[in-house]
Design brief:
mainly beta, 1 helix, 10 strands, single chain, 61% strand, two-stranded antiparallel ribbon
Length: 220
């Protein structure tokens, strides 16, 4: 019988706000040791973790985690098809952030949200009878919606807009199968965005941003 492998993708986004915005938007160096999973199951339990004899299966997954550079939560969802150790899916991700600064005679408020849509692929390899290691990637596009207001010495500015950029991520982690149709995962995602155009200025993202995620998958 074939083993269950599921896709976890998630996403989030790397931006640099105007120079007045401070260290919260400086990328930290991140190291991660991926968690290992439970011991091998008995022969009786193993049967519950193996799907029926079908060539492919539809799955949906949802993940939530922490985007380190932006210091905000992020959310990822996938719907797709699994075949043997491979899975292919449509992926959605979302995060938002806001920040304010002010002093005696000036103030600045910035808010933004970033949504991505991508095509994702993942492959898995068993580590025990009920767990597996997975790696994957996705490619697509991300849209940023932004707004800002500023005042200084009696002058006032307010504006908003949207911009689209290239999106790419790679992911790796561990998956634990709970039943024939349900599994959980823990992983690390590295995310890259292309250049966003904000108020006529280019917000460049020329590095990978790290994110940790925890998710669940249902297979039908």
């Amino acid at each position: 019988m074939s083993k269950i492998y599921s896709l976890r993708q998630v996403n989030k986004h790397t931006l640099k706000l105007p120079k007045t915005m401070k260290s919260r938007y400086i990328t930290p160096l991140l190291g991660l040791s991926l968690a290992s999973t439970a011991l091998a199951q008995s022969a009786e339990t193993q049967v519950a973790f193996t799907p029926s004899d079908q060539d492919s299966a539809v799955f949906v997954s949802a993940s939530a985690g922490h985007l380190f550079d932006q210091e905000v939560p992020f959310f990822v969802g996938n719907i797709g098809i699994k075949k043997d150790i491979h899975s292919f899916s449509l992926q959605f991700s979302y995060w938002d952030d806001s920040q304010s600064e002010s002093n005696y005679n000036s103030s600045l408020d910035v808010a933004l949200d970033v949504t991505s849509f991508s095509l994702a692929y993942q492959a898995g390899m068993d580590t025990t009878e009920a767990s597996s290691f997975y790696v994957g990637c996705s490619v697509g596009a991300a849209q940023m919606n932004y707004s800002a207001s500023a005042s200084s010495y009696g002058y006032y500015f307010k504006g908003d807009g949207e911009s689209t950029a290239f999106y790419f991520d790679i992911v790796a982690g561990m998956e634990q199968r709970f039943t024939e149709h349900c599994s959980g995962n823990f992983g690390l995602r590295l995310i890259h965005y292309g250049d966003f155009d904000v108020f006529g200025e280019t917000l460049s993202s020329n590095f990978l941003q790290a994110a940790l995620e925890v998710g669940i998958t249902f297979q039908f």
